[in-house]
């Protein structure tokens, strides 16, 4: 069985989303929201619903970024997190984290029901399960945290699925959905309520002042009272977010299986992580199998991660066909809690939402409500918990030290790596770091035999990017920037493309 040739994600059904123009003029508005995922759409929708003038601007199409490569679970069960939150933040803030995410689920469920959004919204239990003694111990500690915080959950010892699980912990009545129709509804409402949406409009710089402004890469200016940066990585330079976030890649395959799946959304408590859930697409049922997480740019040959998921699916459920495969790229904060709120102290007209770990669907609603409240000058009970200026000595200090050491290691490793491969050795659809006249370069030979050669030095801080064979991209192992095979920026913090040679 062969994997599909190129990564795809069926969430990005652009036919379901209307097309919007590029910004081709200076613009004055009340609020500017940057980012075309569900966070930006939710924030702009809530502002427009209050009768405020808002402009949503995105560098790609709507859902063109991280939201387009999701597993689309809406849940407050974010793996094993609550025992850890109690240890680092205390019970009160851990409870707030649960309440914020449970409220986000309730908001999305009510919105879909009230407006009849045909987004395949299905209520299902979310389940963490253990297959080894190590996972069992973690599961018991998490269940104790549920009980302390009053989280409704159920601990049991058997599963009906063929996982060989020794224990499981469920959170009842969570949900899954299809984000494209949901996003289309939000976009249509923003416009109906007087807001404006601009696609393929890349933000360049933020300018502070009596009124805020942002300039686009095309040279246009958007002037407003405040700006919310809801893109994958903040587009502005301040705040040292590149040092406070690290990027992780993980992988998903969508399979057709003969197994009669009974429902539920599952994730392992121990390594290697495996995420399993069902989806209905095109009138048939598919299983989504995810896992194989690693720091972006630091994994083994990325095709191997897809192959590993395929073997797990074959051994566990049986595989008739692999319909889709894609990779996800998530940003993780130093304490695993997202950064949502004022981007930095002393700048009340610049807000940010980033660092969602792997739980962007639920967090999009948390962030949309919190950002909108702050921009409107309203109180929000979760502002302190998610505030980007927070600092917890434990775990922030340890994580920062570890990340700094990791960046230094990969910076030096990339510079000293000796490469013997020659571009002429590359076959069709093959890429690699190569040495040309003593210089480290990146080469990819496409399906037509054309050779694309770039300077592998990341334009953010000079680390050497690595070839990602699964996605045909150049990925930076230091801060997670990603570039297309011919050097164009896909994800920051890098802003400039790789040099073409």
From TrEMBL:
CDD domains in the cross-refs? Rieske_YhfW_C
What keyword terms does UniProt attach to this protein? 2Fe-2S, Disulfide bond, Iron, Iron-sulfur, Metal-binding
> What sequence ranges are listed for the domain Rieske?
418-501
Q: Name one GO cellular component term.
A: cytoplasm
GO molecular function terms attached to this record = 2 iron, 2 sulfur cluster binding; metal ion binding; monooxygenase activity; oxidoreductase activity, acting on paired donors, with incorporation or reduction of molecular oxygen
Where do transmembrane segments lie in this chain?
none
Q: Does the keyword Heme apply?
A: no
Record has Cell inner membrane as a keyword: no
This one is known as FAD-dependent oxidoreductase
Classification lineage: Bacteria, Bacillati, Bacillota, Bacilli, Bacillales
